[in-house]
Specification:
heterotrimer, A mainly alpha (109), B mainly alpha (479), C mainly alpha (229), A: Helix Hairpins, elongated, B: 479 residues, mainly alpha, two-stranded antiparallel ribbon, 20 helices, 2 strands, 2% strand
């Protein structure tokens, strides 16, 4: 198993973990974190899968990931600013359907 | 001079002009509105320049950086692209003129609306002309972020919630798409759509990434059951923003889905039938929800959910005569953009006039704003698929495709859907003619707002007449 | 105290969790299998290598980012700019509490900020031949700007009183201008003449570095600053 494949599978695991958290967690910052983590996982898959073919290091996946990271930062920043405003405007950093839930829930898997 | 115009890189200008305008409107906020409107008109002109070039000379390629695929990125404008570009130009111009007047009362919002809207338009034009899967990802992100920011511009609690949900769903969709891009590059070593189409044979290496990309795009298009984010976002945004979202932004991800479908031509009946079924479910669910709404903007938003379902009915019908089925779907998308845009603009005028958008309190709107109501009615005619509108042409083509293959189920879905659409449209019109027992405030609505909505709705109806010239553009695009 | 076994109102039920688990398992299986499949064609490393000499940069990643696929980078800077406009559109910047900054922070800043600026300049310059470039340099500069902000001050550009928004737009503006500027004489957008490519790339990267730093710092501030309209 090449290192590229290992990284890619690791990235896949991160995406799955992030997906679990994105759907099930109520606190908006956790959701934003989850999306961020999923993005990092996707970038790992990009770079890992791109380096699986032997031979010269392929610069295109790396350039794609640099672009992707900047895009992810922009999205995360906008998301966090939105969470702040939501918390200020409605009192809780949660979507309407999650307002009744325990935002700091640690136990629920 | 004419030769210069004919050979100018309008494809590039359609992207560079709105980007420059956005920067200028942001850097000079006190003049944001005039800059915005001028840029809008120039961008629309550029889009029509591309339309003329392609209509008269065939599909065009523009090699950015001079390198050409697979090393560089290519822009490709074919029949489908230019129809989308023209649709964006028409709706975009109408919304720009409307917004110029609508936002006059909120100067702080004006300063942010124009840069964000121009970024959105640039993203749309870039998306419709891009031929590179990763570049499409970046355009999708620009589109999504601008759209979310425009929804949040309203500032209210529901708008912020709607924007947040929209953002999370949009990012999830982009992520799924990006996974597909990663796997495609891993398998086929290129990011260019044309090359990918040539190299891809099938099997798991194509099915998994294509499935991921389609799933992501379905999320962004808001097909049932992924539609949950759509009504709150479209319903709580300001009227011009809702017109852009329902009219244009959801069409972009649908266009991309079509583009991927035409490039890779997946075989098998499972996926098309699944997509068609989800579309049918969307038609019913969206229409029934629309009937139950008390607020006009939410009704129009649920109508979008329903109308998007029609677009997917083409998938199971494309077997015998692809041109008929796909042409119908695309034409429905075009008509919906104009009609839904007009409907949201009309709803905005009604809200400005009365201060509310409760449907059963419309209080004889027909007396005070006949133009706006005419706009709503005409848009409704196109949405319900009555002749001679663009909606009718699209539905008729799909019905023909269904009946030619004996697919009575899909035909029934479309007919019942049309009846439901007419029902909720006429419900609004009915209340618009009745007097309400309560007293409401009455503000003046500028004529410009009424006229833009009306002209856009007329456009949706006249689209039916343009079909003989528009549909042949799709030759060579469809599989 | 949660009741054992019974989920609280609104908590996702067992059905949702099982469904989600199945979905994620399917995704993992699908993507995993696709990763194990043999590639049909090699990547673009060879194509990049072949044209590297004409690209104006020695580092292949920089060549891809700023020349071969420069249009992607341009759009990505547009995404960054749009995100900032979006954050400014949300409202004024949240007021931070008025505390005296820790003397440790101030002391560190007096070392870190000039060092950071130096590293930024180095990364920008080195990007042509070694790993580095506009984004890395911009991120470092943004990081020290954040330190400056945390110490209670806002970074100001000590050019003739330039407002922050000009720093925001300059990256994308220069990139667009250069791309359009090279268009004369039958060249395409962003088609740099081979002998000027290196210089143009560095010029675009410098403007981009400045913008990226201003935008990232602005995103950290989280809203429209007071003196911006």
């Amino acid at each position: 198993m090449s290192s590229g494949l290992l990284f890619a599978l690791g990235g896949l695991g991160i995406v799955v973990i992030g997906g679990w958290a994105l759907v099930l967690r109520a606190h908006l910052i956790r959701k934003v974190l989850a999306i961020n983590i999923m993005g990092s996982g996707a970038f790992l898959i990009l770079v890992g899968a791109g380096s699986m073919g032997g031979g010269d290091v392929d610069p295109v996946p790396q350039a794609m990931v640099i672009t992707g990271i900047v895009v992810a930062i922009s999205a995360t920043a906008l998301a966090l600013a939105l969470v702040l405003r939501i918390a200020n405007a409605t009192g809780k950093p949660a979507l309407p359907e999650d307002r009744e839930r325990d935002l700091m829930d640690e136990e629920g898997m | 001079m004419l030769e210069q115009f004919a050979q100018a890189p309008w494809m590039l200008w359609a992207i560079a002009l709105p980007l420059s305008g956005a920067l200028l409107a942001f850097a000079l906020p006190r003049r944001a509105a005039p800059i915005g409107v001028v840029t809008a008109l120039l961008t629309a002109a550029a889009a029509f320049g591309v339309l003329l070039q392609v209509a008269l000379g065939g599909a065009r390629v523009y090699r950015l950086g001079g390198w050409g695929a697979p090393l560089g990125i290519d822009l490709l404008a074919d029949g489908l692209s230019v129809l989308m570009l023209a649709m964006t130009a028409i709706v975009g111009t109408a919304v720009s003129i409307y917004a110029r007047v609508y936002l006059v009362t909120s100067p702080e919002k004006v300063r942010r609306f124009w840069p964000l809207w121009l970024f959105l338009w640039a993203a749309l034009n870039a998306l419709f002309q891009s031929s590179d899967v990763f570049n499409l990802y970046v355009t999708l992100e620009l589109l999504g972020l601008s759209a979310v920011a425009l929804v949040a511009l309203t500032g209210s609690g529901p708008a912020l919630w709607g924007a947040m949900r929209y953002l999370l769903v949009s990012l999830l969709g982009s992520l799924a798409y990006l996974l597909g891009v990663a796997l495609l590059y891993h398998a086929y070593g290129t990011l260019d759509l044309a090359l990918l189409g040539a190299r891809a044979e099938g099997g798991l290496s194509l099915a998994v990434p294509l499935g991921a990309m389609i799933a992501g795009l379905l999320l962004k298009t808001g097909l049932f059951p992924f539609h949950v984010w759509l009504p709150p976002a479209h319903g709580s945004a300001r009227a011009p923003v809702s017109a852009l979202l329902s009219g244009l932004v959801v069409k972009a991800s649908f266009y991309l889905l079509l583009r991927l479908w035409f490039t890779f031509t997946p075989e098998g009946q499972g996926l098309p039938i699944l997509l068609g079924s989800l579309g049918a479910a969307a038609v019913f669910w969206g229409s029934i929800q629309a009937l139950r709404q008390k607020r006009l903007k939410l009704l129009v938003a649920y109508s979008t959910v329903a109308q998007l379902g029609y677009l997917f009915i083409a998938f199971p019908l494309a077997g015998l005569d692809p041109a008929l089925a796909w042409g119908g779907s695309i034409y429905l998308a075009l008509s919906h953009a104009l009609a839904k845009g007009a409907m949201f603009l009309a709803a905005g005028s009604i809200m400005t006039q009365g201060g509310h958008d409760e449907i059963d309190e419309l209080d004889r709107v027909v007396d005070r704003m006949p133009l706006t109501l005419a706009a709503f009615a005409l848009a409704g005619i196109s949405l319900a698929g009555l002749p001679p509108s663009g909606g009718f042409v699209g539905k008729w083509m799909l019905l023909q495709a269904a009946m030619a293959q004996g697919e009575w189920f899909w035909a029934a879905v479309m007919i019942v859907g049309g009846v439901l659409t007419a029902t909720y449209v006429f419900r609004v019109l009915g209340f618009a003619f009745t007097k309400s027992p309560h007293v409401h405030e009455a503000h003046d609505v500028p004529r410009t707002m009424e006229w833009t909505a009306l002209l856009l709705a007329l456009g949706a109806v006249l689209l039916g007449f343009v079909a003989p010239w528009a549909l042949p553009l799709l030759d060579g695009v469809l599989p | 105290m949660k009741m054992a076994g019974r989920p609280a109102p609104g908590e996702p039920g067992l059905l949702l969790r099982t469904g989600l688990a199945l979905l994620l398992a399917a995704v993992a299986a699908g993507v995993g299998l696709a990763l194990f499949a043999e590639p049909v064609a090699p990547g673009l490393a060879g194509a990049v290598e072949a044209e590297l000499a004409r690209s104006g940069a020695d580092n292949p990643v920089t060549a891809v980012l700023l020349n071969f696929r420069g249009y992607d980078t341009l759009l990505e800077i547009a995404v960054l700019t749009a995100a900032l406009v979006g954050v400014w559109a949300l409202g004024p910047a949240p007021r931070s509490k008025e505390t005296t900054p820790s003397p440790v922070l101030l002391g560190m800043n007096s070392v870190l900020i000039p060092l950071g600026a130096l590293i930024c300049a180095y990364l920008l310059w080195a990007g042509t031949a070694r790993p580095g470039g506009a984004f890395q340099a911009g991120a470092v500069l943004a990081a020290v700007s954040v330190l400056h902000i945390l110490a209670g001050r806002r970074p100001r550009m000590h050019l003739p009183e330039a407002p922050m928004r000009w720093g925001v737009v300059i990256g994308l503006a220069v990139f667009l201008a250069v791309g359009l500027g090279v268009k004369g004489a039958g060249r395409h957008f962003l088609e740099y003449p081979v002998d000027l490519a290196g210089g143009l790339i560095l010029f675009v990267e410098t403007a981009a570095t400045l913008s990226i730093a201003v935008i990232l710092a602005g995103l950290f501030i989280g809203g429209r600053p007071e003196d911006e309209p």
